[in-house]
Specification:
By secondary structure, the protein is α+β, with helices and mostly antiparallel strands. It has 18 helices and 15 strands. The chain has a six-stranded mixed sheet, sandwiched between helices.
Length: 458
């Protein structure tokens, strides 16, 4: 059965995971996204009149009115250059259930949102059309896209979705807090160990052990990224073996446990109940927290709630701090696919190519997504810089995001039980941090459980 939608930045667990762009738009209200919507007026997007007529039905996940309205701009721009086409959007919080219901009733959307969690199950069930022929006719292949997003779209050697948007997560650091802690404000951590070393200097506790000032705040979702950065893997495609207990994964989790033990998991959990960076009085704005691991969309919230904070943006630290290690960055996001019984597959493809290839740059900065079509990156960077403003604190760092997207190649395993696998890792992380299991015990258990579920086909 198709899996439920999750997101690495919204994963369950005792300690909050990374705040996603979608959460920012929902929690931040109109203020957070106002400048982006203002920049969407005028519909400057271009596109060729390439035929097609009638109404195209599009199904998308529901991330709130502000984001949905931004996505609608894509359809409006398409309509402006395709006069005989109208775009009808449906935004659904349970998009998978709606998709399967529509397919079962022979009233499918012409094209649909899908994501890294759902894609393998849906493709394995032949829910979507193969896109190989469309890509070949368009002269498109793996080298044209962020590799991890393309690979996530492949099942059984066929492409079943077109990469749409992705999250390029990087490290924001507070230069002000670095100065307060006696650290060089222009020297952020480059390596995993430097991140912990700096965090130890920054850390301040009250007499009762409560955390008053914090450096790095680890999450369950971070473990997956650290495992890749430590050289680990979670699945062997050739042998179809689950490898959660890869020695490098164990090493990464032990490294995280040692740091959380220093903080005290209960004190850390209490500290992370403070407002997030998209809310007033948040610890990053008030210099109680040194780091944010998030995407470029954070600039708008920071402009509102931390307007005077001196911060910088750098790459997520790697094990040894080398540029080559950035290929181990985990890149995840969403795609668009064509249901197998779509009534207008050719027209659906034309729209998808327009939105996520031809106009991928504008799709990216106008909807606060990282585009996946590599040739769009220069225009995306230029447009995003214009939208943000040259004088904005983040402007000088925006290429860190695009370089992260270009470098990252890791992705969560493409397998029908990947949602179950992910949930087991998240739950197991909490067990480890609370010293109820050792890292190896937990990862051995997850390996056995997921392998058994994969074998059973349930």
């Amino acid at each position: 059965m198709p899996v439920a939608e999750t997101h690495p930045e919204r994963a369950a667990g005792a300690m909050p995971s990374r705040l996603s762009r979608r959460s920012v738009l929902t929690l931040g209200g109109g203020v957070v996204f106002g400048s982006v919507l203002a920049g969407c007026g005028g519909l400057p997007w271009s596109g060729s009149d390439s035929g097609g007529s009638g109404s195209l039905q599009l199904l998308n996940s529901n991330w709130g009115q502000l984001y949905n309205d931004a996505m609608k701009k894509i359809g409006t721009a398409y309509e402006s250059s395709h006069k005989d086409v109208s775009i009808d959007w449906t935004f659904s919080e349970d998009w998978q259930a709606k998709l399967l219901t529509q397919i079962g009733g022979d009233t499918p959307p012409d094209a649909t949102y899908t994501n890294w969690v759902a894609q393998a199950s849906l493709a394995a069930d032949k829910t979507f059309l193969e896109l190989d022929g469309y890509l070949e006719d368009a002269g498109l292949g793996r080298d044209d896209f962020v590799s991890s997003m393309y690979d996530t779209s492949v099942w059984d050697n066929h492409v079943y979705a077109l990469p749409g948007g992705a999250d390029y997560l990087v490290l924001f650091w507070s230069k002000d807090l670095y100065r307060d802690a006696g650290l060089d404000p222009d020297q952020p951590p480059r390596t995993a160990d430097e991140l912990i070393e700096h965090s130890k200097v920054i850390l301040q506790k009250e007499s009762n052990g409560n955390i008053a000032r914090l450096g790095y705040s680890p999450t369950a979702a971070d473990f997956i990224q650290w495992a890749f950065l430590f050289g680990g893997s979670f699945y062997d495609d050739h042998s179809q073996q689950v490898t959660a207990n890869d020695p490098a994964n164990v090493q990464a989790l032990e490294w995280m446990y040692d740091y959380v033990k220093l903080l005290d998991v209960n004190k850390l959990t209490a500290f992370t109940q403070l407002p997030d960076y998209s809310s007033p009085g948040n610890p990053f704005a008030t210099k109680k927290s040194a780091y944010l691991l998030t995407g470029f969309w954070a600039y708008d919230a920071l402009d509102k709630y931390a307007p005077k904070l001196d911060y910088g943006v750098t790459f997520w630290p790697t094990q040894h701090g080398t540029p080559q290690e950035r290929s181990n960055y985990l890149i995840q996001g969403w795609m668009y696919a064509i249901p197998s019984n779509s009534k207008s597959p050719d027209d659906a493809w034309k729209f998808m190519k327009y939105a996520f290839v031809d106009e991928a740059a504008q799709m990216g900065y106008k909807t606060l997504n990282g585009p996946c079509y590599l040739k769009s990156f220069p225009a995306f960077l230029t447009g995003l810089t214009t939208q943000v403003g040259q004088e904005n604190r983040i402007a000088r760092y925006l290429d860190v995001f695009t370089q992260t997207g270009q470098a990252g190649s890791k992705y969560w395993p493409v397998m029908p039980v990947n949602s179950y696998y992910y949930d087991q890792i998240i739950a197991g992380y909490d067990q480890v941090m609370r010293a109820k299991m050792t890292p190896k015990e937990m990862l051995d258990q997850v390996t056995d459980r997921v392998q058994a579920k994969l074998k059973s086909g349930s």
